[in-house]
Design a protein that fits this description.
This protein is of the alpha/beta class and 225 residues long. Helix content is 35%, strand content 24%. It is built from 7 helices and 10 strands. The protein has a 6-stranded mixed β-sheet with strand order 6-7-8-3-9-10, sandwiched between helices. α3 crosses α4 and α3 packs parallel to α5. The chain is globular. The two termini are 28 Å apart. Bound molecules: adenosine-5'-triphosphate. The site of adenosine-5'-triphosphate (ATP) has 10 residues, from α1. It holds the Pfam family ABC_tran.
Length: 225
């Protein structure tokens, strides 16, 4: 579904990412790790057509990202749910309205979708916060709202950028459980994180590949994590 063939990316200076080849299959589970500034967020952006490679080829759902056009990019955004590092919300809307925003934007805000919204808020444990405004949420609640917003359009893949960045251990485990559950439902999941203890803990729940960006290249990390 997401395929990289000898991909490189540069923001204008030297290459940040070099010669990356990778296949993200449906139902797969990956962690993406590497030092701060290594290019994890940049790599994720290449996976959902927010960036196009400066060399090589990124193919998203069978199409070269360079040939997607506006409709093609919109289709990719529907099929790839992204939990951003800073999980920004519209503060004048309620939590429920923020989570439902991707439905509203894609014109699929039907009654059935509204029911899905209620279920989804229950799944992430935010039913009681549905009417709250985003600034009133705790860090963990924000992360769970961001996850709900990413999955409301039933994407094929979920990309999460440091989803447990600002939460305590218990909450990070809860978020991981939600991501593992999504994977069991058949979604491909990729989580960018610095947190090696999170990866170690997840290994008992899911069979995941761990990728590391090191010296501009993507490597499969060994079992020595
Ligand atoms: N829009 C941009 N223009 C120029 N340079 C950028 C841009 N975005 C990111 N960079 C640079 O690219 C490098 C990689 O950034 P990126 O955010 O992909 O790293 P990261 O591995 O996700 O880092 P972190 O773990 O700190 O979030 C950094 O040096 C960053 O400053």
């Amino acid at each position: 579904m997401i395929s990289f063939d000898h991909v490189a990316y540069s923001y204008g200076g030297g290459e940040l990412l070099t010669d990356i080849s990778l296949e993200l299959a449906p139902g797969s589970f990956h962690f993406l790790t590497g030092p701060s500034g290594a290019g994890k967020t940049t790599f994720l952006k290449l996976c959902y057509a927010a960036l196009t490679p400066t060399a090589g080829q990124v193919t998203l759902f069978g199409k070269d990202v360079r040939d997607l056009g506006r409709d093609g990019v919109a289709d990719v955004r529907r099929r790839v749910g992204v939990v951003h590092q800073d999980c920004q919300f519209l503060d004048h809307l309620s939590v429920a309205e923020n989570v439902a925003l991707p439905l509203t934007v894609s014109g699929r805000d039907t009654q059935a979708a509204r029911q899905d919204l209620d279920e989804l808020l229950g799944w992430v444990g935010l039913t009681h916060r549905a009417r709250a405004r985003p600034p009133e949420l705790s860090g963990g609640e924000r992360q769970r709202a961001a996850l709900a917003r990413a999955v409301i359009v039933a994407p094929d893949a979920i990309l999460a950028d440091e989803p447990t960045g600002n939460v305590d251990w218990e909450m990070s485990q809860r978020l991981m459980t939600l991501l593992v559950e999504l994977n069991r439902m058949g979604r491909a999941v990729m989580i960018a994180t610095h947190d090696l203890s999170l990866i170690r803990a997840a290994k008992s729940q899911v069979s995941a590949r761990v990728l590391r960006i090191s010296n501009r290249r993507l490597q499969l990390a060994g079992a020595d994590l």
